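Posting for a labmate who doesn't have an account.
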Amino acid sequence: MTRAPTTRRFGTRRRARRVAALTVALLTGPSFAPTLLAAQEAEEILEYDVVIEVGDGGVMRVRESIRVRALGDRIRRGIYRDIPTGFPRTLGLGRIEAPFEVISVTRNGQPERYVVETVGGPAGRRGMRIRIGNPSMNISEGVHEYAIEYETSRWITFGEGTDELYWNVTGHDWAFPILSATARVSLPDVHQPRDLQVWTGVEGSTAQDAEVRWDESTSTAVFQTTAPLGPGEGVTVGVAFPSGLVSPPDEEQRAQWTRMDWGGWIDAGYVVLFVVALYLLMWRRVGMDPPKGRVGVQDEPPAGYSPSALGYIDQRGYDQNQLSAALVNMALKGALRIESDGQGWTLQRKATTREAADMLSPEEAALFRELLGTRDSISLTRTNHTKLRSAIRAFRSSLSSRLEREYFETNRIWFGVGLAVSVLGFAAVAWRWRFDINPVALFLGVWLTIWSAGVGTMAYRIVHDIRAARRSGDRRRWAQVAPIFLFSIPFFIAEIVVAGILFFMVPVHLLVAGIVLGATNILFYHLLERPTLKGQGVLDGLTAFRAHLESAADWESRQGTATEGVRGFQKFERLFPFAIALKMEERWATAFDEVLTAALAPGMDPRLFDRYEADHEGG
């Protein structure tokens, strides 16, 4: 025995108001006829009929029939249909992606040209846009019927005893009113659903201007609007039915969904792993340090090198301490005198340029030549800023040309390869997931990339100075690090704040990939640098010499030489430039307190150490 169709009506009040309005319009007579005629000639969707067949695994075959009136205004070459298919998970960790495939598209019963595009949406959502029509050909004015058939899945929630399907029938992106909309949901069994729901209006609306009925003869739930929908309005339906009518997805389907959901993380992971593997291969090929020699303790620095040269080799690059070491060493060799009047510093010539070239190392001679030239003296003030910068450039250039290739390799070309691969890989992932990115985030991302490079360099410098301070064991070295650290705090805060903003504006996998790739490049920028065999020999000697300087027992023995007067002071001043170059000047000077106190005997030149005395008395 066949049961009569079950019908429920929603939105009767709104429907009654519309009927009343229509009655008033009819009673007013011909004066309103032009208005009604104009309304009929507007571009609009006359009928929107959808048939949904639910199959095994929750796969839905959807056929949409859309009758539109085109007047050449907005509808010129065709229409497009946006279907949401991607939704972000909590905190943006992964996504929920629904499989989607277009089967056919027709216009007025004939196949029609179309393309499928990925588009972004609000709140991190995205979807597929079916753009229908020939971009180089306008359609005729009048009524056209478009038919779209596609398959999608993952819209059914499989529960305990009850499964639920929720489907946005029309979408909410139409710029035209929809005069009538109908949806038919066909289940694979004749059992009546446990619940049928419908919502109409803008997204999130709870209005229900539609009627719902269950046609048991065809096992179909039918939803029919009872009032036109305005632009931006749509229909969403819900069907709850007993578990078991639709088989759940199998393991193969679930594996496919997992790949779709975590595709961004998988792409980013591949890029990061490839970059790290590439850097490791390059590091093993060109960046590994030569084997270290046996290191003991030696009380003299490696022979044949100036203090600044040894500092350059030790740091594998230029450092401000190398300039200070060179000036002190030049003064000790008698090429110049360092004087202080309490207001600033002055370098006083004591040798001619030719004499300086004979007694100084090449880099010290270049510094001497650029600083003094034909002058008798130069004050280290802002008025001589240009001259000082030129002298420092000449000093650095001399160190670099003499030492870089012979004593260590920077391998910048290899690093450039890794950096280029990192940028291209990240750009590829970002392009693939570009529809998930807020446009403002593009600007912030570029800004943060440049900012991070500076912050990373600053962080590396601070860590380096902290290590030097710990190695020196002197509180005054910590006092020098503290202002730099305090100065850097706002930069680190800005880095964290902007990164936090980007966290909510871009996919998390892109943010994590950018941070990891940035850190990897900074790390291997330094790891790819390596000493040559000759450079490693010098570094072994420096390690032994530093061990000598750092030995606590050696400090005590040096302090015991204070009674030796001239001998103790001469040893102090001879090694003092090397201590400066190795960033141990404070500890070295502290160990010689008693020697320096006794250094006012005849034959001493206390003016060379005005800087030490001023710092020591102030500390």
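Reply:
Got it, the structure tokens are right above this. The CA atoms of residues 369 and 432 lie 57 Å apart.
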